[in-house]
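Lecture 7 notes: from sequence to structure.
We start with the chain below.
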Amino acid sequence: MPRPSTKSAPTDVTAKAAPQTSPKSLPFPTSESVKAAKTSPTKAAAAKKPAAKTAAPAAAEVAPAAAAPKTAAKAEAKVEVKTAEAESAKSAERKNVYPFDIQNKSVRKLWLKCQPGEPKDSRGAHDTAPAPVDLAQFDPSEKPFSSGKGKQQDKDQTFKIAQELDGLQNVFYADRRFKLLVILQGMDAAGKDGTLRGVFGQMTPLGVRTVGWKAPTDTEKAHDYLWRIHQQMPGAGEIVVFNRSQYEDVLVPVVEKWITPEQQAQRFAQINDFERMLSETGTIVVKFMLNISKDEQRERLQERLDDPCKHWKFDEGDLKVRSQWDEYQHAYAQLLAATHTPWAPWTIVPADSKTHRNLMIATVLREVLSNLELKYPLGSPALDKIKVK
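Predicted structure tokens for the same chain:
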């Protein structure tokens, strides 16, 4: 927009043009700005804006013709000021995007019941260990997101949502304001691989990748435990899905007693700070704990042993981990309580039903992505004049 001439602009106009905000560097709000995210900055600006002054009728009637250009310039300046204010308000609204404030009331109600309590800001609480989550209160066999009309109906609904996710991912990739990290964490045979197929299988490979974490290599062990994790973070417009994650470093070492309780608490704090840094630089972190029962795990592990085509998925170490079921459940209870934050909340997914597991995760992801107000970037105006011969 052209600026009004400094010669004709009135001297009482002091508003400055709104600073240009690059859409690719929008900060993601954390605990301090969650409340602001739910308050429209446009309304706040309107409430603070003083009432416009009414021009004196007499002055308008006796104004000489020479004053017309000055009046026009003043009007033009006011238009520019209003435009700048509007752009500033829009920029503030974009900054206050909070993807976890799910708008669908019925989905939000179900989702909140599957969270390990209220998300807590972990900063300044490194010395206070929260009470472990009572996983006994989360029934792995429940199907809160099921339609109740049968397995096939839920499968069809999951497929429909998966196609919607494909469309959202396409715009997400083009928009490039955000990055998305999806964490799938759970015991052996909890369904992490199945979730990848059932939820993300319809997405275009462009802009989506998965990372399956194993025991750290010698090179990885030579660095801090988050070093290898940071290298696999999504780029702008990219979706990355973790099959296991950094949380293995507060599970296995805890159960095997390789680290002390003090070191465990320290790692919780480090992971929280790491995820907060990611969120503040545009990465949306969505974490799912796939919660299966011990009986369901036994059936799935036996199925792998009975089917030669699934032997590759079985490791004898799985039996040792299964014998430590209670210890791992306690370690999960601790990490869920300590790392459930406003910027990276946990969702505990009842996962005995593979169909329901996929339906629930797909539904939550659709709501999160829909909250981002994704859009295709505007092309150059010159493109309208180009004709392909």
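Points to note: Strands lie at 179-186, 208-212, 239-243, 283-291, 346-350. Residues 58-96 form one domain.
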